[in-house]
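As a warm-up, study this chain.
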Amino acid sequence: MKILVTGTAGFIGFHLAKFLLERGDTVIGIDNLNDYYDVRLKHSRLALTGIDHAGLDYGEPVQSKKYSKYTFIKLDLLDKKQLEDCFRTNKFDAVCNLAAQAGVRYSLTNPDVYVDSNIKGFLNILECCRNFKINHLVYASSSSVYGMNKKMPFSEHDIADHPVSLYAASKKANEMMAHTYSHLFNLRTTGLRFFTVYGPWGRPDMALFIFTKAILEGKPIEVFNNGNMKRDFTYIDDIVKGIVRVIDNPAETNADWDAENPDPATSTAPFRVFNIGRGAPVGLMDFVLEIERQLHVKAKKIYRPMQDGDVAETYADVSNLSDVLNYEPVTPVPIGVARFAAWYKAFYKAGKQETANVVH
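Now compare it with the structure written out below.
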């Protein structure tokens, strides 16, 4: 297929583009390369897919030196005209929108960025998919949409209308916007609620990256909610496998949908929402212990109260994606953390720590 992947300098987008290219798809990748975190990491991801950041001019396609079927364009989703030109020129079979302003905590102090990128930018994607007759739009939602929900595990079939951060609200809005376009224009859309994705080339604002960096530098880590947190940590390879399964199987209508007992995950329109997680939450302190084991360094810990916009636990019910598309996450946390630690130390050439801190 010919697939547009937005956010291909980002963590998930980079891994997805690489997977699609290696199986033979044609990929057009776009990213605005913003400075939410270290742009050098984004440049390094692009370099692995044969894109030299030094030769990037805004709006100009750059051919990969590694993959003959990969073209990258530095482009912002808010640039509707350039985005339309990209759709008009390429005639995509499918679109996977992973470009977004990420981060729960950042949304508390920079709300406008989330409205611009996650709402206005997503609207431009929807309009292009509608006007250029795209067969299937797959887009990133988030486990954060479950917000105040306490029923575990989180299920797509339960209502999730009480977000606790603007980031979460923007992702819930994406789902509602997608349903509207599915209903009005018969656009096939599938939203993916990602659960705490981690792995090599991960984001520097995520816990695994923050903890690893601090521990190797001999600095203390901040442990929020006094360590009483659980997360459904999901390894990047399992995430990518789920995304590809979804791309290959466009959303369908639910003939049994009941308007008096509406299922939030399906519709009479070609609309679906899936959780993608491991389905096995891990305690934060157990996760920290695993990082210590892999780094052979004991962490110095500072315990903090719960942060605004955060939740104590996430736990994905992945039975829906498993039943519909035979999705099965296979990577245990110790293996995933080990792979990340090996990547981090190699990429940053982290030095050896004092032997007094070594975990025996």
